[in-house]
Amino acid sequence: MIVKFEKIGLIAGKGIYPELLLRGARAANVKSVAIAAFHGETSEALVGRADAHEWVRVGQLGKMIKFFKKQGVRHAVMAGQITPGNLFDLRPDMRTLMMLGKLKQRNAESIFGAIGDELAKDGIELLDATTFMEDALVKEGAVFGPALSERQLGDAAYAIEIAKQTSKLDIGQTVIVRHGTVLAVEAFEGTNECIRRGGGLGKGQALLAKVSKPNQDFRFDVPVIGPDTVRVAGEAGVKALVLEAGRTLILDWDAVRDGCERHGVSVHGVATDATPERYRKG
């Protein structure tokens, strides 16, 4: 069943993700999009295409909620990155201080989850960040670039298995492997730095696997790749990006396809419930 929305609040970080989500909302005939924009993060060009907007600092939760309520927003979506350091260098308003005071742990997941809870208190439902983006979710099988070799399929199965384990521990959802050896695991530094580190050790034969973690909250935490991921992978010698199908977004498909052709990088989707044995059979 397709749910239609007349108004949407877009909590917009940086990057192309908020732009694509705005396009998706327009294509879904959303009549009004109100953007909560962050100083130093959100594109001014994006803000210019909103029906209404409010500039806030990271930590001004009360101001953002007041803005959405004024606009009659009952559903909101988060899209785009917030510089990780900003999440731990907050200048919180009173509402944010009260929210943070209730948290036993202060990591990105707990902070964003608490924001969702605060929005709900004011009648604003935080939707999955894949809303309006369903067509951008990777499908199972070969997507772009050269087909994976038998050895790469074996590495892919192993990498996915390891990534699922590290994601359970909340360490990272991306790993880089070469010939059955783990070269790098993503942590706080982010995917691109993990690619550079692992690619440097892989000597042109490395492979990336990116998965979702158990009980992943897709309201604010969706595995994604984009043109920049492919470019960094190509420059670092990472030859294949293996992604969890139905749970990973490819941002800007045309640019990713072009990048794969330019850099000789493959993109391959694997089913969520696939076992390594099944995946090795292609």
Structure keywords:
5-stranded parallel beta sheet, single chain, Cytidine Deaminase, domain 2, EC 3.6.1.54, alpha/beta, 282 residues, 13 strands
Please describe what this structure looks like.
This protein is an alpha/beta fold and 282 residues long. It has two domains: 7-126, Rossmann fold; 137-280, LpxI C-terminal catalytic domain (Cytidine Deaminase, domain 2, 3-Layer(aba) Sandwich), CATH 3.40.140. 38% of the residues lie in helices and 21% in strands. The protein is built from eleven helices and 13 strands. The chain has helices spanning 17-27, 44-47, 61-70, 84-87, 94-101, 108-121, 150-168, 191-202, 227-236, 253-263, 276-280, and strands at 7-12, 32-38, 52-56, 75-79, 125-126, 141-144, 174-178, 181-185, 206-210, 224-225, 238-244, 249-250, 266-270. The strands form three sheets. A six-stranded mixed sheet has the order 6-13-11-9-7-8. A five-stranded parallel sheet has the order 3-2-1-4-5. It has a two-stranded parallel ribbon with strand order 10-12. The relative contact order is 0.13. The mean pLDDT is 90. It comes from Sulfuriroseicoccus oceanibius. It is an enzyme of class 3 (hydrolase). Keywords: Hydrolase.
Number of self-contained structural domains: 2
Could you give the distance between the termini?
Answer: 32 Å
Roughly what fraction of the amino acids lie in strands? 15-25%
- The CATH architecture of the largest domain comes to 3-Layer(aba) Sandwich
